[in-house]
Amino acid sequence: MVDVEAEVREVLGERLPVQFSRVRYGAELVLHTTREALLPLMLLLRDSPALDFAQLMDVCGVDWPERPERFDVVYNLLSLTRNARVTVIVPTDDTQPVPSVAPIWPTATWFEREAWDMYGIVFAGLDDLRRLLTDYGFEGHPLRKDFPLSGFVEVRYDAAAGRVVNEPVQLTQDFRSFDFMSPWEAMTTLPGDEKVHLNRLPPPESARTEGDKP
Q1: Does domain 4-143 bear CATH number 3.40.50.970?
Q2: Relative to the CA of 74, which of 67, 136, 161, 186 has its CA 20 to 30 Å away?
């Protein structure tokens, strides 16, 4: 089995600020680095023959609103020749740009556009930083944890105008917090637990254990 962590440590040495950790029961290696060290690290991971992480599988974001640098940018890399994966994580906020890795992996253009669209993460050096999944004129970034569940606008077809229009959201009722165990909510059983009250037949004699037999 390839010891990816040992090989990465040998290639990197002390040249870059990288912290190592493990996820998924220790199966996959995670590298935590800074915005300034991101591009040199990615080039080493891709171009070092001992590593050969030639494929960028995904770039995504994670929102931690309680942190000063609220976002993690997560890069998932794959080495087919080494049969190994590695994850690189870079922290940032909504103002400090992260260097784009599109010059290294052109496929990152779509991934970074999606991260900008969903989280508002800015990527320096990305020529095509446009929204990807939301509509033109959309306000906000919907995967941020402080984004309202109802959004800011709703889209509908206006027959009189003959086109699709955007309008402020109008809720038919306020949001409610349901207490399913309260008798005032007319429910005494949690959803999914309906069968707990059924009278079940005892197991057949042949299926009983020694402790069950009289």
Answers
A1: no
A2: 136
